[in-house]
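Exercise 7b. Backbone tokens:
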């Protein structure tokens, strides 16, 4: 599907979708448990991949409205009877790779072309160091993967600057091993708030995991069980960034975002970023609402070390702002569904935006740019697509985003939300 956005003013109420990061963890953690109702779950292409994996390991996932009724495998995953297809979901593949290491036999994991190009090597090495067998069929540290268990726990070291999901995967699995896990970080941890999310979800299911001087640890022999058998997923601040940015660049009358309760999500930083750039922002944390109105935006410097998913949104804000917006500590953002640093530089360039790219930074020269409409490629990346669509709200002329249906990965109702706020949108299938 291609979508064309023409210049529009937006106003009204937008509701945040549930958090993708929390939903992934909640579905898999419920798989480790016995029976759980996961409420307010995001049912997207990515989270459905995690649900399918739980079923491959012997659980069941039934959708009842916005709730998921999950009967888990109670910490003892079956050897899958078929290949686990993770689709485009890097989170699914990394988290369930460690789950596969608990099964008494071999599991095969694969995904689409994009996912089969993403690095998994450090996690495979960690599983091997713990006594399992974990290999890449092509010998390049990328899927397809073959993982054979079971592991019983122990000590392991792993880099922290490639993906925090490796640490999350090991913590989730480590709680049901015999000996537990001690994880030593070989390098500084990037995207650290995502591990904080993991610790928060584990605690909600009665599992004790903790930070240590060297990294993280989780005791073995624990049982997963949510209080009252239920867990509620909070709103997603990665997704909140889009209506928030839309209001900051294209709303004179204001946009209110509902479902913005505080949580461990690092992407709550977007509220402060939009405020620093010059929009009018009021976050009522108790009510879980954010009100935003457009202002004269000015470029700022932002480290995305802990908030990689925000880079596309901030890049679009920088394209509208005066002066320079510099995004630093961004090298790990190159290893997402696509290289988001280059993708945003190239596609914003198509729309007339001047940028400077280094290996670990992206600078947007808003003051030297004039946004004009054009045809841009969403790169099969939901976050790139949504960020480019925002640019279309204020670019001169129409902006066509090719391959826009990939928003289903995290925000299936994104274009409906924009349309409800008053954006002019045409779809072409």
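Sequence design result:
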């Amino acid at each position: 599907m291609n979508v064309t956005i023409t210049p529009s003013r937006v106003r009204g109420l937008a509701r945040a979708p549930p958090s993708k990061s929390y939903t992934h963890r909640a579905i898999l953690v419920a798989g480790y448990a016995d029976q759980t109702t996961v409420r307010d779950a995001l049912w997207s292409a990515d989270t459905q991949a995690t649900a399918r994996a739980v079923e491959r390991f012997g659980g069941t996932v039934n959708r009842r409205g916005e709730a998921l009724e999950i009967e888990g495998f109670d910490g003892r995953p079956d050897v899958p009877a078929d290949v686990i297809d993770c689709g485009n979901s890097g989170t699914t593949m990394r988290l369930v790779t460690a789950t596969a290491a608990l099964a008494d036999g071999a599991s095969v994991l694969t995904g689409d072309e994009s996912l089969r190009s993403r690095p998994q090597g450090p996690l495979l090495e960690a599983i091997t160091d713990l006594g399992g067998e974990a290999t890449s069929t092509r010998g390049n540290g990328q899927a397809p993967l073959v993982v054979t268990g079971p592991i019983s726990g122990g000590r392991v070291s792993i880099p922290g600057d490639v993906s925090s999901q490796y640490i999350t995967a090991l913590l989730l699995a480590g709680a049901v091993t015999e000996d537990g896990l001690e994880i030593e970080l070989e390098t500084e941890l990037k995207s650290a708030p995502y591990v904080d999310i993991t610790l928060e979800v584990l605690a909600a299911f009665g599992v004790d995991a903790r930070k240590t001087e060297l990294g993280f640890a989780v005791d073995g022999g624990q049982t997963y069980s949510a209080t009252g058998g239920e867990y509620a997923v909070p709103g997603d601040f990665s997704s909140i960034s889009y209506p928030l940015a839309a209001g900051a660049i294209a709303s004179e009358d204001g946009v209110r975002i509902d479902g913005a309760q505080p949580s461990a999500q690092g992407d709550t930083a977007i509220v402060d970023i939009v405020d620093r750039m010059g929009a009018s922002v009021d976050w009522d944390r108790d009510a879980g609402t954010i009100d935003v109105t457009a202002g004269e935006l000015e470029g700022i410097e932002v480290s995305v070390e802990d908030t990689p998913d925000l880079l596309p949104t901030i890049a679009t804000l920088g394209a509208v702002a005066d002066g320079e917006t510099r995004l630093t500590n961004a090298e790990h953002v190159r290893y997402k569904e696509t290289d988001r640093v280059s993708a945003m530089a190239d596609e914003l360039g198509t729309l007339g935006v001047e940028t400077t790219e280094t290996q670990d930074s992206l600078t947007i020269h808003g003051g030297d740019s004039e946004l004009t409409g054009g045809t841009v490629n969403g790169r099969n990346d939901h976050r790139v697509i949504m960020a480019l669509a925002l640019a279309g709200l204020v670019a001169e002329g129409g902006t066509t985003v090719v391959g826009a249906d990939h928003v289903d990965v995290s925000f299936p109702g994104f274009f409906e939300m924009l349309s409800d706020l008053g954006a002019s949108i045409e779809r072409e299938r």
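Instructor comment: The chain has a mean pLDDT of 97. Residues 204 and 226 are 6 Å apart (CA to CA).
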